Amino acid sequence: MSFKNLRLATFLVCFFGLANFAFAQTVPVVPAELRVITRLVPPFVMKDGDTYKGFTVELWQAIAKQIGHTFNFVEVPTIKEILAGMKAGDGDVAIAAISITSQREQDFDFSQPMFDSGLQILVRNDAEAGFGLSQIWKLLSTGAMPFLLTLLAALIVIPAHVAWFTERKHHAELFSNSYFPGIFQAMWWSTGAAVGQQPDNLGSKWGKGVSSLIVIISLLFVSYFQATFTTVLTVQSLKGDINGPQDLIGRKVGTTVSSTAAAYLKTLEIEPVEFAKIDQAFLALDNKQLDAVVFDAPVLLYYAATTGRNKARIVGSILRKESYGILFPRGSILRKPVNEALLKLREDGTYDALYAKWFSVTQTADVAQ
Questions:
Q1: Which residues contact 275 (CB under 8 A, 6 or more apart)?
Q2: Which tens digits make up the pLDDT trace of 186-215?
Q3: How far is the CA of 157 from the CAs of 147, 184, 193, 304, in angstroms?
Q4: What pairs with residue 255 in β-bridges?
Q5: What is the pTM of this model?
Q6: Is residue 155 within 8 Å of 190, Cβ to Cβ?
Q7: Nearest to residue 223, comparing CAs of 185, 196, 184?
């Protein structure tokens, strides 16, 4: 081999060697044992002693088996610390109930959606016990009550004027000849007549006619008013005072730190009370330190059907739909095989079996009404 060819061969070996080295440095390397960052959020991630369980845990275990990786869990208390840990390179994967958002997509990669969710409101079962001024006002302004109250006022005021005008000269002992206080005396008489308790009969033809008319109308009115008032009172007690996001304004509302629920509440100009763990918010609600909790619907439903049964209930519909995903660092080579495994688990029925196992209790429990 000539010297010139030797130089060319040496150059090519060096070039391709350096190229391979550079390529190896840029391709992410997956460790033999994956570090999976998570947090406790029933029923997705729970802990029994040192053993993790829950819907997301078992789903991840099935995925890890499919892609042929062992793993260990790294538990942190909040979603904020999950995101910080992934950004710092402390984990290869993050699982829990992690909502896919446009803001998080800027810093991380997500798997395809693994669970459809949304935000809902949880209140105490006894949260509406008793009536304050706001509850009384809401009761009197609901349904047919404004019309009935107006009709009652007319049934008192109009006959009172007729009675005073026709009887003031004949029944001075009943009605003063002066408009004040005579009209108030007449209204007192007509109020009694409207509820079927006339204190005295009027003597003039007009007075007798008014009295008879009031008696007939009052029989019909009192029965209808009582039935309507009872219905409104029953509906109000069943519905409660918090039924949607508009009812949260001015209330103490709890959720978790840096959650999508906290961000949503702030868009409504509600400053939430933020807790590290959702269980702390549930406890504060039970101790009457909160008026409501806003969080992921599956988590609230699970609590209301298990630990919080008969103590708390869901009100209203889904406030905002969300999807959960498995979180990866930017450019992770795990994303493709994890997505493929997730699709296989949906196709072979494994996903449906896990869903039925962990959420059938919330589907059958009567906690959403």
A1: 254, 255, 256, 257, 281, 284
A2: 787 777 766 656 555 565 666 666 666 666
A3: 15, 9, 12, 50
A4: 274
A5: 0.61
A6: yes
A7: 196
